[in-house]
């Protein structure tokens, strides 16, 4: 069983930055595509970014492109989301997710991911 635990959320002013971390245990993330999703109150879950198992390919939602950067450190069994230029529309609970099948492409399809973290809250003040 894979456990994913995120950290790094909190309150930041609009225009500020936060870095989220996702630490995995129970299994290595090496060889598995990972992703970040977010969900704001009253809204549907939204894809944010995904990174291929090799780290060589990434995907970003249009709403975060150019502001957010996804990365991974397989040696630390961790994934990250650097969030810059945060906007009032970015607040949400941010969940990290891991594919359960190895060597698949980066995807925004939530059904590709079987393991999910609970997610920290990100709040942006204007």
Structural write-up:
The protein has 126 residues and is an all-beta fold. 0% of the residues lie in helices and 48% in strands. It has strands spanning 3-7, 10-13, 18-25, 34-39, 46-51, 58-60, 68-73, 78-83, 92-99, 113-116, 121-125. Strands 2, 4, 5, 6, 9, 10 and 11 form a 7-stranded mixed β-sheet that branches. The chain has a 4-stranded antiparallel β-sheet with strand order 1-3-8-7, with no helix packed on it. The protein is globular.
Class of secondary structure makeup? mainly beta
Unreliably modeled segments: none
Radius of gyration: 13 Å
Order of helices and strands: EEEEEEEEEEE
Number of helices: 0
The helix content is under 10%
Strand content: over 45%
**Total number of beta strands:** 11
Mean pLDDT: 95
Largest sheet: 7 strands, mixed
Identify the overall geometry.
globular
Distance between the termini: 40 Å
Set down the secondary structure blueprint.
Layout: E1 3-7, E2 10-13, E3 18-25, E4 34-39, E5 46-51, E6 58-60, E7 68-73, E8 78-83, E9 92-99, E10 113-116, E11 121-125
Parallel strand pairs: 2-11
Antiparallel strand pairs: 1-3, 3-8, 4-5, 4-9, 5-6, 7-8, 9-10, 9-11
Search tags:
single chain; 126 residues; mainly beta; four-stranded antiparallel β-sheet
Short description:
This protein has 126 residues and is an all-beta fold. Helices cover 0% and strands 48% of the residues.
